[in-house]
Design a protein that fits this description.
Layout (H helix, E strand, L loop, with lengths): L2 E6 L3 E8 L2 E6 L4 E5 L1 H8 L5 E2 L5 E2 L12 H8 L4
Antiparallel strand pairs: 1-2, 2-3, 3-4, 5-6
Length: 83
């Protein structure tokens, strides 16, 4: 799995993409917001880090609807081989 939709409301609002340098986070407009390492991604998943998109919308993972997020097993499978 090369990419994973993190929050999806009728389309991916935030998507994580594997790269050689870590995990690139893009918003629904295709704008690259930041590059994270695995612990930072888990910080977002745990609600310790918010991600602000290119339209200044702040996304907090735990506050997003359960139906809009991937399962924890999908997140694990996405990050398990990232060094």
């Amino acid at each position: 799995m090369k990419k994973l939709g993190l929050i999806n409301y009728e389309g991916d609002c935030l998507v994580a993409i594997k790269s050689d340098n870590g995990i690139i986070i893009k918003d629904q407009h295709g704008v690259e917001l930041q590059t994270m390492i695995v612990p930072e991604l888990y910080g977002f998943i745990d609600g310790l880090i918010d991600i602000v998109d290119s339209r200044e919308i702040s996304w907090n993972y735990p506050r997003a609807s359960k139906d809009s997020k991937p399962s924890y097993s999908m997140i694990y499978n996405f990050v398990k081989d990232i060094k």
